[in-house]
Specification:
Strand content: 5-15%
Structural class: mainly alpha
Number of strands: 2
Strand order of the largest sheet: 1-2
Largest sheet: 2 strands, antiparallel
Length: 149
């Protein structure tokens, strides 16, 4: 009976240890996920708007093509979701930075977006404002990369 009690006690202690280990690993995974999301937000919130304006400055196109063009230009390292691009295009339409025209007004298959003169001005303004910040960010990334690797 005493041996069984010790075994039960050992099992309970091992269950508790495993549960604590599980909680720690789960917290670590959540932290990694948050860090990845934060890094992703640098791109989606910080760089995507200006880069969409840049792609549109090259010529009229649709949301899917914008995503593909960004993917091509970044050699596949960043292919933004169209779920992030289309809301931006709608927002840009509200600000009159882009206009959207259906390729076939009856079928409404694909909306082609063009930069307006206000959109071109907004792109130039953002480019000027962000240039120094992007250069500083690159320098910081170089230093961190050098320190870590």
């Amino acid at each position: 009976m005493n041996q069984r009690f010790l075994n039960d006690k050992n099992i309970k202690a091992e269950e508790k240890r495993l549960y604590e280990e599980y909680k720690q690993k789960l917290e670590a995974l959540k932290k990694v996920k948050k860090e990845k999301e934060a890094v992703g937000q640098v791109f989606t919130k910080g760089l995507l708007p200006i880069y969409v304006l840049y792609i549109l400055s090259l010529g009229p196109t649709n949301g899917n093509d914008i995503s593909h063009k960004i993917g091509e230009r970044t050699e596949g390292m960043w292919v933004p979701s169209t779920g992030g691009i289309y809301p931006l295009l709608k927002k840009f339409e509200k600000f009159n930075w882009v206009t959207g025209q259906w390729d076939d007004p009856e079928k409404k298959f694909q909306k082609i977006y063009s930069l307006t003169s206000e959109g071109k001005q907004e792109f130039e303004n953002r480019k000027a404002l962000l240039q120094t910040k992007i250069e500083e960010a690159l320098e910081v990334f170089k230093i961190i990369y050098k320190d870590l690797y």
